[in-house]
Structure formats: structure tokens, C-alpha cells
């Protein structure tokens, strides 16, 4: 690990919750403005998080607490691997592991909505996992390495070689960051169908930990999106920041334009996008390599 | 940081005529926009800080209300919205109505009105927020735990017995 990557990991570990809260705060205000409302304060997600940790600690059973902690740990861990410049594949598998712990936590409480949420989360994973893996393959094909530090060492931004992958990745990011469809396994919308589903039976600090994990995950996903724009040139970091802002805005916009998309639509379209956008790009990249 | 900066709300429709419920929803629309206070309508008792109850309590939903209340983690406050939730209102004499929300769980703030106006509702919530902060402070010092619905029923029973005893004493005298 170089000094640079150590610093990146430390910044990630310390500031991620704040940064992600700021992002979601902006997102909530923008959403409110799109709907003609004033919206909450900018740091509202931060207040929510702190409040959750000050509530009474109740949990349905002991194993639930442990599983949620494991979920939080692996979510943070996968991000740390990413920002230390290691293997993208490892990052994605660690992230999947984190997801699995949350699903187990939901199953462990034996409640109807949690169970339904857990099942839906599994379906969602089936929809978006192929694209995440394909993105990693795409990085390999265009840079010859799975390592983050090699991927950001290219001369040309990867988006030029991998536009299809980017479209696919953007598509699954909307799902992964729990924006749309509205009947996801768990989402921040009040009008959702499953009464928070997956996280429905977590309360107080335990729920706080699952929220914290989500904040770290958000930073990680945005980090992976930034890989498409970062090159060996330091100015490219600025471009990546602008790109992230645009991505966040587009996600809000899509969520507000299609507020009633259902999960069946997600299942059908996710694989189509994966095959057509990701797959076509993959074929072209592998032809170019020969 | 104060808990009142992020009050999450749970709305339950008892035996309301739906008039009050429409007004509750109106409070979340662009005109009133309660989200500016950080209020979210959660729909999940385990995430909620404020329990907003509309309509009277009837013999079928009393256990539901008790269960919702007991599932909410401390600190929590209960808001009775509309005159039906305060004391049974226009449905008070119906054979199936037990009375207001406070017949089954302790109520902190009563918001009158038929139907309750969104302005009154927001006023009530702001009052509730102060209470919520007070409860949170006391809880931190280890001086406070809210009553469970069973304890409340017990307290009501004792209160009823005392009133009865006082009544008979008066008659005897
Ligand atoms: S107070 Fe009036 S509007 Fe509200 S539930 Fe009762 S009858 Fe309906």
C-alpha cells in the first residue's frame, strides 16, 4: 500500500458517512424541489442516523444483531479494499457477502414483511449481479488488470472504451442505491409497498448499523462509477466528481419521472440492459484486444 | 443533537371516517410539506418516534393499537388526531366504540378538530417534538421508560376502582 492509498482508505473510513449523508441530503432536497416542495435540511440523513443510535436498543433475537453487524463490517471492508487500490473482483464479492448477511438477518426474525423483503432482495441481486461482474470483466479487458490502481492508471478515460458497461452499471446503480423501482426490498420512500421489508424488523441502533452500511456502500458504488472517468492525469478527478454529480441528478430524475416502476419490470429490463449494453461492449472490447 | 430533528411518524387509522386521514396526508403535500421538519411517514412502528392515531378505538382494533404502541422503541410520543381520537367524538355512543385513543394507550398530545386541520396537526406535532426531546433527555439519565400498554391498562383499572370506591363512599355519606 502506498501513502496515497493509505490516505484514501483513512479518508474513506472516517468521512464516508458524512459525505454520503451530504449526497443523500442533496438528493432529498432536489427530489423535493422536483415535486414543488421545500424539502428537508441538507444534513437531514445525518440527523436521522444519529437519532437511530440514540434510540432504545431492541432486537427480535440476538442473532439478528450479530448478522447486521457483520453486514455493516463487510460493507465497510469491501469499500476499504477498493480505496486501497486492490482487486475489483474481491470488492464485488465482499459486497455480495455483506448483502447476504443482511438477507440472513431479515430471514432470522421470521416475520412476514422481512421474509418477503429478503426474497425480493435475492431477486434483485439476481437482476444486478451479472452486470456488476461484467463491469469488472470490462475493466480487465480494457486495462489488462483487475486492480483498481492499474485501472486508474490509464491514459484515456475508460468511458470511451466502455460506454455500454457504463450504461449498464448506471442502470443497476439505481437499484443498488435503492432508488427505483418503488417496491424494492427496502427503500426510503414513504409509499413503498413492503413497509421497509428487508429492514422492517430492525429498530434503533441495529437499524442504525444497517443505515451506516448503506452509506458506506453508496460511497463505494459512486467510487466504482468514478473509475470510468479517472486517468493518470490528476485533473481527471475533477471530471469524476462532476460525473458523479450528474449521475446522482439523473438518478433522482429517473426516480421522479417513473415513480411507479415495479420489480417485475426491473427483472425483465436489467438482464436486457446487461446483455445488450454490457454484452455488445464486451464483444467489441474482446475483438479489439485480438 | 436533538431527537426532534428527525421525528419519524407512524399514522394509524382507528375507526376514523377517513376525514382526518386525508388531512394527515395533506400535511405531506407540497402546500404543507412536513418533510421540511425532517418528518417522514414511515409506516413501520419499529422505526417510528411519533404515533399518530386518528379515529376512535373499537373492540376489534384495540389490540392492534396496543401492539403498535408496544413495538415502538423509546423515546416515543402519541398524538390523538381529531375529536374521534380524543374521546370518541361523533361515534362515541356506537355499540362498538370504546372511546378515544387514551382508552388503550397513554396519549401525550390531543389535537382537536373535525376534521383536524393540517395546521393544527403540524402544531400538535411541534408540541410533541418538545415532549420527545424531554423524554430523550430523561432517558439518557436513566430516569425514564415509557409505560407499556399492559401497565397502562393496569393503571386505568386502579383509577377506575378508586373512582368507584369514592363514589360508594359519597353515597354512604
Ligand atoms: S374527527 Fe371528524 S373527520 Fe376526524 S375521524 Fe372523527 S368524524 Fe372523521
Low-confidence stretches of chain A at least 5 residues in length (pLDDT < 50)? none
Q: Please tell me the total number of domains of chain A.
A: 1
Order of helices and strands of chain B: EHEEEHEHEEHH
The beta-strand count of chain B equals 7
> Greatest chain-chain interface?
A-B, 29 and 26 residues
Rounded mean pLDDT score of chain A: 84
- The value of Rg of chain A in angstroms is 19 Å
- Shape verdict of chain B: globular
User: Quick one: biggest sheet of chain A?
Assistant: none
Which strand order do you get reading across the main beta sheet of chain B?
Answer: 2-1-3-5-7
Structural class of chain B: alpha/beta
Work out the number of β strands of chain A.
0
Please state roughly what percent of the residues of chain A sit in beta strands, choosing from under 5%, 5-15%, 15-25%, 25-35%, 35-45% or over 45%. Answer: under 5%
Tally of helical segments of chain B: 5
Distance between the termini of chain B: 57 Å
What does this structure look like?
The complex is a heterodimer of chains A (290) and B (173). Chain A has 290 residues and is mainly alpha-helical. Chain A has helices at 3-34, 44-54, 62-83, 88-108, 112-143, 148-151, 163-176, 204-227, 236-257, 263-289. Chain B is an alpha/beta fold and 173 residues long. Chain B has a single domain (8-172), classed as Rossmann fold, CATH 3.40.50.12280. Chain B contains 5 helices and 7 strands; from the N terminus they run E-H-E-E-E-H-E-H-E-E-H-H. Chain B has helices at residues 19-26, 62-71, 83-87, 118-140, 149-172; strands at 8-13, 40-41, 50-54, 57-58, 77-81, 97-99, 109-111. Chain B has a 5-stranded parallel beta sheet with strand order 2-1-3-5-7. A two-stranded antiparallel ribbon of chain B has the order 4-6. Chain B is globular and about 60 Å long. The A-B interface holds A 28, 32, 35-41, 44, 47-48, 50-51, 54-58, 190, 192, 195-196, 200-204, 207 and B 1, 3, 5-6, 8, 28, 30, 33, 35-38, 40-44, 46-47, 49, 73-75, 136, 139-140. The complex binds iron/sulfur cluster. Iron/sulfur cluster (SF4) binds at residues 16-17, 19-20, 54-55, 82-84, 89-90, 114-115 of chain B.
Amino acid at each position: 500500500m502506498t501513502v496515497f492509498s493509505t490516505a484514501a482508505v483513512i479518508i474513506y473510513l472516517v468521512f464516508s458517512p458524512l459525505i454520503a449523508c451530504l449526497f443523500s441530503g442533496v438528493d432529498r432536497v432536489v427530489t423535493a424541489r422536483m415535486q414543488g416542495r421545500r424539502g428537508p435540511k441538507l444534513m437531514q440523513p445525518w440527523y436521522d442516523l444519529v437519532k437511530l443510535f440514540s434510540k432504545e436498543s431492541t432486537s427480535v433475537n440476538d442473532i439478528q444483531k450479530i448478522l447486521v453487524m457483520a453486514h455493516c463490517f463487510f460493507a465497510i471492508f469491501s469499500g476499504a479494499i477498493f480505496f486501497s487500490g486492490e482487486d475489483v473482483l474481491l470488492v464485488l464479492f465482499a459486497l455480495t457477502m455483506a448483502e447476504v448477511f443482511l438477507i440472513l438477518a431479515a430471514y432470522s426474525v421470521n416475520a412476514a414483511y422481512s421474509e418477503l423483503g429478503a426474497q425480493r432482495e435475492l431477486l434483485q441481486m439476481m437482476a444486478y449481479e451479472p452486470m456488476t461482474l461484467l463491469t469488472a470483466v470490462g475493466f480487465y479487458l480494457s486495462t489488462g488488470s483487475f486492480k483498481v490502481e492499474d485501472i486508474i492508471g490509464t491514459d484515456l478515460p475508460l468511458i470511451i472504451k466502455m460506454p455500454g458497461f457504463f450504461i449498464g452499471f448506471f442502470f443497476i446503480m439505481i437499484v443498488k442505491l435503492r432508488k427505483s423501482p418503488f417496491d424494492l426490498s427496502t427503500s426510503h420512500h414513504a409509499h413503498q409497498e413492503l413497509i421497509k421489508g428487508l429492514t422492517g424488523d430492525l429498530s434503533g441502533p441495529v437499524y442504525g448499523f444497517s443505515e451506516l452500511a448503506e452509506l458506506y456502500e453508496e460511497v463505494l458504488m459512486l467510487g466504482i462509477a468514478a473509475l470510468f472517468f479517472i486517468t493518470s492525469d490528476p485533473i481527471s478527478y475533477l471530471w469524476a466528481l462532476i460525473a458523479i454529480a450528474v449521475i446522482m441528478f439523473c438518478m433522482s430524475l429517473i426516480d421522479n419521472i417513473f415513480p411507479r416502476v415495479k420489480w417485475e419490470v426491473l427483472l425483465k429490463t436489467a438482464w436486457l440492459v446487461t446483455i445488450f449494453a454490457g454484452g455488445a461492449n464486451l464483444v467489441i472490447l474482446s475483438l479489439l484486444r485480438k | 443533537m436533538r431527537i426532534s430533528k428527525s421525528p419519524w411518524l407512524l399514522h394509524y387509522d382507528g375507526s376514523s371516517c377517513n376525514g382526518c386521514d386525508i388531512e394527515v396526508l395533506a400535511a405531506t403535500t407540497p402546500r404543507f410539506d412536513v418533510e421540511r421538519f425532517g418528518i417522514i411517514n414511515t409506516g413501520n412502528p419499529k422505526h417510528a418516534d411519533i404515533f399518530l392515531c386518528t379515529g376512535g378505538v373499537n373492540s376489534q382494533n384495540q389490540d392492534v393499537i396496543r401492539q403498535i404502541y408496544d413495538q415502538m422503541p423509546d423515546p416515543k410520543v402519541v398524538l390523538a388526531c381529531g375529536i374521534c381520537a380524543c374521546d370518541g367524538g361523533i361515534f362515541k355512543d356506537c355499540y362498538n366504540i370504546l372511546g378515544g385513543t387514551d382508552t388503550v394507550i397513554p396519549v401525550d398530545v390531543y389535537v382537536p378538530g373535525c376534521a383536524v386541520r393540517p395546521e393544527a396537526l403540524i402544531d400538535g406535532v411541534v408540541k410533541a417534538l418538545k415532549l420527545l426531546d424531554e423524554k430523550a433527555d430523561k432517558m439518557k439519565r436513566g430516569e425514564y421508560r415509557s409505560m407499556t400498554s399492559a401497565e397502562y391498562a393496569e393503571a386505568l383499572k386502579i383509577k377506575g376502582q378508586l373512582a368507584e370506591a369514592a363514589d360508594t363512599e359519597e353515597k354512604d355519606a
